[in-house]
Amino acid sequence: MTTAFVLGGGGVLGAVEVGMLRALLERDIVPDLVLGTSVGALNGAMVARQPDLAVVERLTELWAATARSRDVYGDRPLRTVRRAVTSGTHIYSSAPLRQRLEEELGDTTFEDLPVRLGVCAASIERAAEHWFTSGPLVPAILASAAVPGLLPPAEIDGEHFLDGGLVNSVPVGRAVELGATRVFVLQVGRIDRPLKPPTRPWEVARVSFEVARRHRFMRDMATIPEGVEAHVLPAVGTSSKDDSLLAHRALLDGHGGSVQSRIDATYDASRRYLDDVLGS
């Protein structure tokens, strides 16, 4: 049996994936393959580097520190407006995220990891899905997490990349292609939320993105071959209201439920799910 962890994107809501990881690792479910997109690339790299319960504590510390410092999406409003005007493409600098990743991962490469890892990004020049599987981790994660409009495109070897969620937000199909026979999907809870037509111009892009990502995920789930076991772990404590930039800032400010409470709630739900499907 080849076990894959598939970690989807979701910005600061990606903290809930830590609760899922805890539930899995407590049952001694360890991955042979980890695939991550956007924030799932960061969480995925951490578990691929340390596939045991100790990684849960470290990830919890990282997410709590992010919420306290607000350094990744924490610029003052005037500075973000100035950057949007001068750059024309984004409102946040990628420098704080790069610094956080370098402090945690240093010069670690894919080849250094005990578990095989794949990180998804969207190539601008090739208009294609790209999978990083070798070389340094930090540039690959930055490329995978380059949210359009929020962070600048990441440049690697002359090629420019945007957030992997544009092409494969929850890469279940990729796991099957690579030989996984048991897949655990770690996602932030958006999949089952009902969508409503946008009523404001800034909602159009978000709703369009959601239609595309859900279509890809549902298609991949529907075409999983016989003999492959797939489990979508439940996320708790997130809602459609959490998808806006203002909601992300509120979460970082500690409003609307703390990071820790969302991790804990998702852990409880995932533990119950695994008990039901795999036996207690």
TrEMBL record:
Catalytic residues, chain numbering: 38 (nucleophile), 163 (proton acceptor)
Residue ranges of the motif DGA/G: 163-165
InterPro entries recorded: Acyl_Trfase/lysoPLipase (IPR016035), NTE (IPR050301), PNPLA_dom (IPR002641)
The keyword Lipid metabolism is assigned to this record: yes
Motif extent (GXSXG): 36-40
Gene3D superfamilies recorded: Cytosolic phospholipase A2 catalytic domain
Pfam families, A to Z: Patatin (PF01734)
Keywords for this protein: Hydrolase, Lipid degradation, Lipid metabolism
Keyword Iron in annotation: no
Domain PNPLA: 5-176
Motif (GXGXXG): 9-14
Descriptive protein name: Patatin-like phospholipase family protein
Source organism of this protein record: Nocardioides baculatus
